[in-house]
Amino acid sequence: MTKVLLSLHVLAAIVAIGPVTVAASMFPAAVRRGDLDQMRTLHRICRVYAVVGLTVPVLGLATGASLGVLTDAWLLVSIVLTVLAAVVLAYAVLPTQASALWSQDPVDAGRLGMVSGVFNLLWATVVVLMIVRPGSTTGA
């Protein structure tokens, strides 16, 4: 069962988190160009895959419980970083994208790019922690 959970966790991360990170990174350039069609598409991708992405931590916790590593430092740090990434997405990236689409106020594409970069950096750090697993007895 652990292998099934781990496989589903990794697949969910690739399928759900990958599109959000790419779309969030592309959005500031679309703002600079004023490409509303692309902005709408990228924002929709971010919103939909953010919801689908909720499966990643759920499957991750199930996998961690199955492996008996829920109290390991690397996993606890990963959980904190995942929560931070979700907060950045929900309270900075998505609202700013929505503002760029539907508000008359101009959006600072540079600031949005920075916030999107922070979101992506948090996820990249989680991926590294998942691969390296400091203190793991299985290698790396």
Kindly report how far apart the N and C termini lie.
23 Å
Share in helix: over 70%
The low-pLDDT segments are none
**How much strand content do the residues show?**
under 5%
Radius of gyration based on Cα positions: 17 Å
Helical segment count: 5
Secondary-structure content class: mainly alpha
Mean pLDDT across every amino acid position: 93
- Listing every helix as H and every strand as E from the N terminus to the C terminus, the arrangement reads HHHHH
The assembly state of the depicted protein chains is: single chain
Number of strands: 0
Shape: elongated
Write a brief structural summary.
This protein is an all-alpha fold and 140 residues long. 83% of the residues lie in helices and 0% in strands.
Task: Give structural notes.
The protein has 140 residues and is an all-alpha fold. The chain is 83% helix and 0% strand. The chain contains five helices and no strands. Helix 1 packs antiparallel against helix 3, helix 1 runs antiparallel to helix 5 and helix 2 (36-52) packs antiparallel against helix 4 (73-102).
Label this structure with key terms.
single chain, 140 residues, mainly alpha, 83% helix
Secondary structure topology:
Elements: H1 2-33, H2 36-52, H3 55-67, H4 73-102, H5 109-132
